[in-house]
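Good morning,

Both structures are done.
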Amino acid sequence: MQLFPCPFCGPRSEAEFHFGGDAGNVRPDEDEVSADRWSSYLYMRHNQKGMSPSIWMHMTCGELFQLDRDTLTHSVAGSKALTEGGHR
């Protein structure tokens, strides 16, 4: 088991979290997106080695946050809230 630092609740078991994707993978505008761009958004990932920012949801409090984690060692460098004050 790994502990993830929720910026709202503190360190919690990884079982309480849901992966939301790579940070910075911005959803394209649905009205103006080509099939190639939409496919790229859905399926193409950076899969980089080393420190990688990703979006997670803490299912207990329902908050989204960015987690910075090393993809090789799984060590966590930190997390930050995506909303001011939390509890959207």
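Second structure follows.
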Amino acid sequence: MQNKQLYWSKGSFCLLLFVILGYTVRFYPQHLEAFDGMVQTAVRGDLPAGLTSFFATLTKLGNMPVIITWVTVMTLFLVWKRYYSEALFLAGNLILTGLLVVLLKNIYQRPRPSLEHLVVEHGFSFPSGHALAAGLVLGSLLILVTQGISSTGLRRLLQVVLVILILLLPLSRVYLGVHYPSDVLGSLLLSLGLLLIEYPAYQGLRFRWRFTGKQAR
């Protein structure tokens, strides 16, 4: 596809930023204290009850059982409709999210924030699994919606909803006190970098399979 190198360059730059941030998290976490503290104070405020209830409910959408359920349903639907490259793209990024969360959390081993947690979470903090799922899995769905929905009104509505979720799910993790802002920033950089690098390969496969009749047009 055209501009393949541009996608790869942008994706590589995002991944480089993630690596730099991860290096800082692992070896010089004190350099992130001012940034994390400033954003935490701005986001959490005085923890109003209504906002706490909203974010505590919203964050459940990023729980792995929930994501696995709807991605499985969506993948089966795409396969039924013979959109095989789209199904592979969506399901593959769900699997990649799970693998990366396990691998990277054990590499960086960052403790969770010491401030009050408004939901129960265990394990390491960096990167945020919820934020990575929001960026990589919901980001994949955003691409599919943009390509596959012919109705302009419905497409724009779904795009707006997905973008809001991609932003609010990571924000909920900071508000609830279970992740540092740099955790979710790292996850969003990683997911954006991966999507930019994957996109030309996905588009190429989608074009070939449609052109040869291996999947629906």
